[in-house]
Amino acid sequence: MSHLYLSQHLRDQLGLLASLAYPHEACGVLFGKQVQGHISVHKVAQVAYPDQIEGDFRLELLNQQQIDRRTKQQGLEIVGIWRALPDQSHIPSEGERHLVSPGYSYLIASITPVGIAEIRSWRLSSSRFEEEDLIS
To answer: Kind of pairing, strands 26-35 and 38-51?
Structure first.
């Protein structure tokens, strides 16, 4: 089982980004380092926004490219994505498989009017999502 390390400071930052989007969904990227199943998140960014028509996410390509360039200069890599779901379950569905590449963490936060109710992280194996340990 893999382990995702996310500091309290980054949890709070993710909570702020999610709260600002509430009652809508929010999505972004996790940047950090990955070594032998241990993923350490060093930065979270909101670089995707819900597509109200399709009910899916579209990446803001220019913003993503700028962040990716700066992140590589800092010696970091994309280690996953995060998604905040308002007043909903935090368990990924089969329909979300297209959002995550194998090897990336998929952090899902359940957001309410008062903040994050619960946060969990998943990893896509060859055939299904497997929960990973989330450590502060």
So the answer is: antiparallel
All structural domains of the chain, each given as residue ranges with its CATH number in brackets, are: 3-135 (3.40.140.10)
Predicted confidence (pLDDT) at residue 53 exceeds the cutoff of 50: no
Burial class of residue 26, CB neighbours in 10 A (0-12, 13-18, 19+)? buried
Output the pLDDT for position 16: 93
User: Reduced to 3 states, what is the DSSP secondary structure of residue 84?
Assistant: strand
Whether the CB-CB separation of 27 and 46 falls below 8 Å is answered with yes
DSSP string, 69-110: HHHHHTT-EEEEEEEEEETS--SPPGGGGGG--TTSEEEEEE
| Residue 92 pLDDT grade (very low, low, confident, very high; cuts 50, 70, 90) | confident
